[in-house]
Design a protein that fits this description.
The chain is mainly α and 417 residues long. The chain has 20 helices and no strands.
Length: 417
Amino acid sequence: MSGIAALAPFRTRSFRFQWPADLCTAWALEMETLILGWYVLVESGSVVLLTVFGALQFVGTLVSPVLGVLGDRLGLRNVLAGMRVCYAVFASLILFLALTRQISPTLVLMVAAMSGLVRPTDIGMRSALVGATVPPVHLVAAMGIARTTQDSARIGGALAGAGFMAAFGMAPAYMVITGIYVAGALLTLLVDGQAAARVPAAGQPAIARPSPWRDLKEGLVYVWRTPRLLAAMSLAALVNLTAFPLSGGLMPYIARDVFHLNQQGLGWMVASFASGAFIGSISLSLFGARVRPARTMLATSIAWYLCLIGFALSTSLPVAMALLVCAGMAQSLSMVTLAILLLRTSEERFRGRIMGVRMLAIYTLPLGLLIAGAMIPSIGFRSTAMIMVLTGLLLAVGIAVAWREHLIRLDAVGNAR
């Protein structure tokens, strides 16, 4: 019965198109990130440039709330499809540079900066689109299933990206990536329902709407005045600063310089973390109706930090990969329940803006990457990792204590089943 319930979101037509659209986009993004990250590290030999590359992919977090406002005004589906067309254009540019043999780390960084203007908003926008089109009774299952697109991409996309690059080179790999982006954009356009922008009915006068900046301000104020949302946003900012760099942007450096692996070894390490995340997402889609979002978010965030402590101290590759699986599972459970808390307990008219503000929390990820990139050459990887993870763990406990009335109490809104 639980398996049937987990598939219930596919009864919604929009979700049947959105899921494969998100899957295509996530796979292409993951392949692209791994290929370009490894290219920058190998060609430049600099962990600093690697962290700059990782940071540039998130420069658009500052405009994410604006894109969230546009999603509320123009239609979440329309804005998301436009973003995915942009990904295809940027991938085509890399393909052109590879075919003409003009590619260089500097040009890769420039394209990463352009892509980074829209890329950070994709996850929040797709979550808001799920919330707008899937009935509330199926929302937990839908969020878990939707998350599998990202998790499976980090497994298959990482392995496929490493394999394509090693076997055929960058140009053929980017032909595949560009084609997948185009497929994702076309499938996104087939989504309907509330994803489309609302227009006045025939004969009705158009109603003047507030400016986008006023909409954005209202979204920020709404989060600030709602303790459970502010706590969730604070935790999201914290894990992006102190946890995500170790399992994301720094992974090419960890694979090559800490564990002395090649590009395929990098793919296996990334896939280990993603496998755990995939297990977490599937578990949530099956049993998510029983969880209490706020409590689960906190407990699994703390478990994530504990796994990263073990990973940072490990000198054995099998042990490190096993800890990455556990860390990935905890990460998935914590971030999906965080998104559920935001969507389930927010007013419907604020959903796009709330997820746009949620994307602002990702702005701490490039900061974390740049901090790590500056510290590693001076004090080494393990010391840097321990400082970041222990700091994050202590502050996560502080968030739990500071907002315990809204996050820990069984009768809190954020823990409603």
